Amino acid sequence: MTALAALIRRDIRIALRVGGGALIGVLFFLTVVVLMPFAVGPDLALLSRLGPAILWLGALLASLLTLDRLFMADHEDGSLDLIAMSRTPLELACAAKALAHWLAAGLPLIIATPVLGLLLNLDMVATGAVALTLLAGTPALTFTGMIGAALAVTLHRGGLLMAVLVLPLSIPVLIFGVAASQAAIVGPMSFGAPFSILCALSLVSLVVGPFAAAASLKHGLD
Amino acid sequence: MTLIDLANPTRFLALTARVLPWLAAATVALLAIGLYQSAVAPDDYQQGATVKIMFIHVPNAWLSMFVWGVMSIASLGTLVWRHPLADVAAKAAAPIGAAFTFLALLTGSLWGRPMWGTYWEWDARLTSVLILFLMYLGLMALWRAVDDPARAARAAAVLTLVGAINLPIIKFSVDWWNTLHQPASVMRMGGPALDRSFLIPLLVMAIAFTLLFVTLHLAAMRNEILRRRVRSLQMIQASRIAFSSELGAGPREGSASKGAGTA
Amino acid sequence: MRLCGSGLTCVRGGREVFTGLDFDAAAGEAIAVVGRNGSGKTSLLRLIAGLLIPAGGTIALAGGDAELTLPEQCHYLGHRDALKPALSVAENLSFWADFLGGERFDAAESLAAVGLDHASDLPAAFLSAGQRRRLSLARLLTVHRPVWLLDEPTTALDVAGQDMFGGLMRDHLARGGLIIAATHAPLGIESRELRIGGTA
């Protein structure tokens, strides 16, 4: 446990220090959301209808872009070799890294959501619903995105290739995330059903992501 | 004190140490006068007491642009004249500018609440200020992303100047985009003919806020200079460790003293 | 304790780096792996560290901790220092000590042993290449591992640093440790030579 706690602490520390990317993710989220009205027009009724979708897309892109370096930085400076050799199973180490990333880069997105909800003319209920679905859904984005980040190390290239690999995997999360928020705002579906599926997706990715990432890393360390 | 003297960070520290208390006192005095005058200013016949947000909002909005101007001049100083304090000034100004811009947005949104019924309207002015705020945040992220201040300074200077050229274009585009979608402007601020009873407190507040900026900026520049000194002392310390441990070795001493020279 | 490899074959990128390689090393012994560039010195170390999978042959550690795999009983000092520039010297070291686990020694003493005791609060970004290498060596001292796999350990170290490192390796061997080092330069301690890929 100390080993995992140490890894989480280190990753969060690096993300928050000079040169760390945690807050840039929030800034990207903010920028993407602010850009939307320029494309669709400043009609508040329209914006509040599109709001959940815009917020979800922004969070998806922001969490994906910051994931790019999840394993790459450790690979470049040789830390990944030592992590793979250590007495901590690589699957658990991957899960710890993803958790640290979610805490440093995912959680701030959810905290920023109410402010952005204001810009998109979402009322309290709608903002709360979107924030809740993001809270339940962004772990799934991080843990599936982690697979792409591990593949990026194996393939020695990141960026766009990773986005192309991971985005299709996150479609279910997007569908049920937006569906649950819409259900809470306008109905007619109940909020519970899509939200439960969203939670289930997160739980599945919590299990699948670390194993897939570790398997990919084990073969990519040469 | 000439400009050359000010260019020396040590002289700058000594001078600002003497000036800062006076500046701070003047700021507090003017702010007190301005706030009193704003409080006793009459209510607007349409907006009622809400109009008093203007006395805070307008100075913040003015400073949000003024600070970018200051940063642009400082950036010219970095790129063209290579002035040693220019990038310190630019770096120190960015968070302060962002704070003023944020306050402008916040007060604008509070002012808009009773008029629009929502906290946020994609009004041309507010939207432009929001984009300005994003650019401040981007600039701060740039400063944070690079560890070496000299390298970050040039990148930030280029971005600041590009921003200065782009801001009018952005403002124009947003105005056009806004009128395209909303033929009738939502908000008329005070109108061109502002009554004397409003104008004088507003001017006092604007000067007070500008003084506040100067005070904060000088203090932040001092902090930044000291932060850089800590950094270079740490680098000297690092090279000293190499130096002492390599003292017996002889041939490697050259590299260690070179490290101390650049620090 | 005895580390044996037999019939090892390593294939990388479709190319056979070496084939049928045998070696064995006993506790208290240092093996210097030598050979020309590209002969597979690094690959051999990474095979032992479990970071590469051998195309053939086996590696086994006899007399080690039966609960642990071979890589878990190894320290690997690669070309890259596994340091984070944003963290301080002490933070870097204590992270690896916490993460690697097992029997550990005082971090401050390790830093003193490599000559970095006055640098513990400095960000690792300010360290020179030689100082970074010293910090990596402090990791080997802080966490106990019987087998040290060292890849060109003396690069970036000055003469005084190489002397210091020689002393550390001798201590490790005297305590029953085992060292396998890939090197071009003389290792500075008594060592047996393992030549791979023909003569240089």
UniProtKB/TrEMBL annotation, chain A:
The chain crosses the membrane at residues 21-41, 53-71, 92-120, 126-153, 160-185, 191-217. GO terms for molecular function: heme transmembrane transporter activity. InterPro entries: Cyt_c_biogenesis_CcmB, Cyt_c_CcmB_bac. The gene is ccmB. Required for the export of heme to the periplasm for the biogenesis of c-type cytochromes. It comes from Bradyrhizobium hipponense. Its main location: membrane. It is a multi-pass membrane protein. It comes from the Bacteria. Keywords: Cell inner membrane, Cell membrane, Cytochrome c-type biogenesis, Membrane, Transmembrane, Transmembrane helix, Transport. This is Heme exporter protein B. It is found in: Cell inner membrane. Pfam families: CcmB. GO terms for cellular component: plasma membrane. Belongs to the CcmB/CycW/HelB family.
From TrEMBL, chain B:
GO terms for cellular component: plasma membrane. Keywords: Cell inner membrane, Cell membrane, Cytochrome c-type biogenesis, Membrane, Transmembrane, Transmembrane helix, Transport. GO terms for biological process: cytochrome complex assembly. Pfam families: Cytochrom_C_asm. Residues 4-181 form the Cytochrome c assembly protein domain. The keyword Cell division does not apply. It comes from the Bacteria. GO terms for molecular function: heme binding; heme transmembrane transporter activity. The chain crosses the membrane at residues 12-36, 61-81, 93-112, 124-143, 155-178, 198-221. Belongs to the CcmC/CycZ/HelC family. Required for the export of heme to the periplasm for the biogenesis of c-type cytochromes. This is Heme exporter protein C. It comes from Bradyrhizobium hipponense.
TrEMBL record, chain C:
GO terms for biological process: cytochrome complex assembly. PROSITE patterns: ABC_TRANSPORTER_1, ABC_TRANSPORTER_2. Keywords: ATP-binding, Cytochrome c-type biogenesis, Membrane, Nucleotide-binding, Translocase, Transport. Pfam families: ABC_tran. Gene3D superfamilies: P-loop containing nucleotide triphosphate hydrolases. GO terms for molecular function: ATP binding; ATP hydrolysis activity; transmembrane transporter activity. Transmembrane segments: none annotated. SMART domains: AAA (SM00382). Residues 1-200 form the ABC transporter domain. PANTHER family: ABC TRANSPORTER I FAMILY MEMBER 1. Involved in beta-(1-->2)glucan export. Transmembrane domains (TMD) form a pore in the inner membrane and the ATP-binding domain (NBD) is responsible for energy generation. Belongs to the ABC transporter superfamily. This is Heme ABC exporter ATP-binding protein CcmA. It comes from Bradyrhizobium hipponense.
